[in-house]
Amino acid sequence: MKHGEADVLIVGAGVAGLAAAHALMQHGKEVIVLEARERVGGRLLRHAIAPDCWIDLGGQWLGPTQERAYALAQRLQLTLFPTYTEGESLVYFGGQARRYAGTIPKLGILPLLDFGSAIAKLDKMAHQVPLDAPWKAPLAACWDSMTFASWIEQSLRTRVGRWGLKLFSEAVFAAEPFEFSLLHALFYIHSGGGVERLSNTRGGAQQDRFAEGAQSLALRLAEPLGARVQLNQPVRQIRQHRESVSATTQSGAIYTARAVIVAVPPTLAGRIEYDPPLPPARDQLTQRLPNGSVIKCFAVYDRPFWRDYGLNGFVTSDLEPLHLVFDNSPPDGSCGILLGFMEGASARRMSAAGFEARRAATLQCLTRYFGERAAQPELYIDHDWSAETWSRGCYGAHFPPGAWTQFGHALRQPIGRIFWAGTETATRWMGYINGAIESGERAAQEVIEIL
Amino acid sequence: MKHGEADVLIVGAGVAGLAAAHALMQHGKEVIVLEARERVGGRLLRHAIAPDCWIDLGGQWLGPTQERAYALAQRLQLTLFPTYTEGESLVYFGGQARRYAGTIPKLGILPLLDFGSAIAKLDKMAHQVPLDAPWKAPLAACWDSMTFASWIEQSLRTRVGRWGLKLFSEAVFAAEPFEFSLLHALFYIHSGGGVERLSNTRGGAQQDRFAEGAQSLALRLAEPLGARVQLNQPVRQIRQHRESVSATTQSGAIYTARAVIVAVPPTLAGRIEYDPPLPPARDQLTQRLPNGSVIKCFAVYDRPFWRDYGLNGFVTSDLEPLHLVFDNSPPDGSCGILLGFMEGASARRMSAAGFEARRAATLQCLTRYFGERAAQPELYIDHDWSAETWSRGCYGAHFPPGAWTQFGHALRQPIGRIFWAGTETATRWMGYINGAIESGERAAQEVIEIL
């Protein structure tokens, strides 16, 4: 068996693991990063559709208050550019498309008041959820005993208003409102700075894109690490000894260090074998944090033709299966790219339906939104994150009812020489690139304190 | 690497796996059963406290309509005897103990009506849930969008009535009512034949015990299999080939066959590596079926002294952490054993608190229920199933909101040469010994049809 030795092992070369590696190196610690895939970046993955023209098959956006992510992008000299928002958006509801400017679709005054008052309530409740300990919210027991869907059912009166929050749930959690608790919804809203901050393009979490693709964050972070990043090394077992910890990979290679940071999603962390076994609370936590379901679908055209009609490419819709569309063209508009999302229940149906069915459904939806011109793209590509063995769902994990109050305390709690990172362990912007960076830096700090 | 070859591999030597092995052998198929532990029986585990005096640290009861289990017990010539029910039961609520005969504690007429009408509603709704496809219930979408706790909150008016259903949830699911969906509650109630059938001792699922311990079911099933059962062989990888399937265990041993039956709880099945990887729906299902939390606590006395006071040892209580107690003495009453359950939230707290705290808390509760005599047992033993690496919770898995409707179709669906057993895949008496037998026999039948 080949051996490697360092001060700290890091499992997972996503942004969290690489940020941890970087922070540790800065403190003079030697690291080895063990990555299951043949590439770095985790849930960030770019794909070249032409020379120097990248699309992001995974995470892709930054937005205001994600300071750690912006700082890192700047340090790595990456180029950001705004998501295209010039012109009008579309809302497609009940078989009819409506254009609108700004952020508020024209769906009637009653639904608007209904939805607006629900958002105000959510934002207000969210502020009562402590980001480092959601289970300590004054009403945590009540909020964690019901699904977000039950709250919607109780709190909104209009069909359109309820649909708006279902869309919010799909777009932000890649899950349906019945899959996670109200407490989790509120924590996440607080973590991301409010419903609008999470939802919006300009001024929100979908504001800025990476010219070289978001994965370039990970690629540039990995560059100076060189051979410290070991690809194709899925960690199967982590063993704690009196003075050290070792990780055995699928190939039988054994790596040794004084601490290990596990920087993979909770479900995948739970699939590693630990010796001695993890305490019950930690193990049962990982049984309870499933990943969302999302398929990103790209239609590439010779040019962004919808802009000619004064449209910015943004669509929200109740038409199956493409409820959300963005203009995802390159910064120079040299070609036109529409990005459609299949999320939650739609993603599950269309994952099973297969590539050809997804292509057909996507183009059918896009044609309804943008006319016949949309039916004939030069290229169609999609990416189903639940089919990725080393992600098994995106954007991230969600907490079903009871998970936060019964097991949340075990989320970041180190166990001997094992420390936990990954965006699911972040307090601010959990589920986002910013949260991944926070988590890696926090775990690195914890390790430095005990080394 | 050591090799083994058979017609069918079976992962897990619990009752499900062993029942499958037995059924396959009867059809002339050769089997190898790969068991992670150093013993057979899975969630059945007996422990000798004296020569020929067994206590069940795991599952222990049979009851009416569990025909497969009774038939198997008879075929294996095991001795059953009734749980002790002579005399009065105790209900301890709000700091006060009350005695009562029969099954209905005296807690006031209003709570009684409230609770009774809730049970009637549940039983009626449960009948509308198809056991082989709960997601096809007419109101499945609605029932799966809310927690059982939300339904209780909406449907019961009295504190005592709500407490009764919380107790039901803990006793039957080892989980709190907010952890699983109303649809799952209804499926489970239908699967077990109604709320009373699930709850009762005489005439219900707690009616009969095994003189030699329930694990003797597995021990006797394993006997004729001899070396076909391979202990200490945790399966780490299952690989499908064109004409065969192979399983690699932790020690590196490789076993080959034409089909494999995976007969372990869903979470643990999800922790095995599959090549090729499992389809998204199957993988995401295993991310969503957490195990309950239960610690069985035994206090052993020289004799069942509570019987002298006309008590049968049965207690339901709101006192932390022991909400449920049974007389678990041997059939001849040669010593007295009280069995207390810590379940759901109580189990999690007391798992972290440690053995001494559990012992103290158990004896404190038993003293409140049965007087000072209970404070000095000859022996105290407990067993925390969430700490067992190869169970990671008991009694079984529960389905949080959305799991049945979004992923239930993947529960039993074979994938190539891989078939699924385990009590969680049963239609009748899911979560019970009877369900385990059904699941093993069903999976064996599926395999026979393709071999």
Key descriptive features of the protein:
homodimer, 451 residues, alpha/beta, FAD/NAD(P)-binding domain, Polyamine Oxidase, Chain A, domain 2, Guanine Nucleotide Dissociation Inhibitor, domain 1, 3 domains, 7-stranded mixed β-sheet, 5-stranded mixed β-sheet, 33% helix, 22% strand, globular
Structure commentary:
The structure is a homodimer of 451-residue chains. The first copy, chain A, is globular, with a radius of gyration of 22 Å. Chain A has 451 residues and is an alpha/beta fold. Chain A has a seven-stranded mixed beta sheet. A five-stranded mixed beta sheet of chain A has the order 1-14-13-12-16, with no helix packed on it. In chain A, strands 11-3-2-15-22 form a five-stranded parallel beta sheet, covered by helices on one side. Chain A contains 15 helices and 22 strands. Chain A has three domains: 142 residues, FAD/NAD(P)-binding domain (3-Layer(bba) Sandwich); 130 residues, Polyamine Oxidase, Chain A, domain 2 (Alpha-Beta Complex), CATH 3.90.660.10; 88 residues, Guanine Nucleotide Dissociation Inhibitor, domain 1 (Orthogonal Bundle). At the A-B interface, helix 5, helix 11 and helix 12 of A face helix 5, helix 11 and helix 12 of B.
